[in-house]
Amino acid sequence: MSALPNCPACASEFTYDDGIQFVCPECGHEWSKEEGPASAPEETAVRDANGNVLNDGDTVTVIKDLKVKGSSSVVKVGTKVKNIRLVEGDHDIDCKIDGIGPMKLKSDFVKKA
């Protein structure tokens, strides 16, 4: 068993000592030996257009007409989207809109209902 700490970024157990710091070979994260687990990178919360924190399963309302790429349909202002799922990336909301189907939305164009 290794006495080295797990990686604070990805929780990998395959870390190694590189002199003055620890290194994770899986994600490439490097941290000093003085840093403790409390200095792990913080997750940024996904926020709506008003600054409210969004969570999985929330209901949101669209605040701007959004054109659907590859289609002639439009998601109208005021459309309620239920049971959202947060994902990584530029479009950080994964959802299903009635009448249109599955889509990805940017949190900048929704507000928490």
Automatic annotation (TrEMBL):
InterPro entries: YjdM, YjdM_C, YjdM_N. It holds the Pfam family YjdM. It comes from the Bacteria. Gene3D superfamilies: 2.20.25.10, SH3 Domains. Residues 4-32 form the Protein YjdM N-terminal domain. Residues 46-113 form the Protein YjdM C-terminal domain. Belongs to the YjdM family. PANTHER family: PROTEIN YJDM, PROTEIN YJDM-RELATED. This is Alkylphosphonate utilization protein.
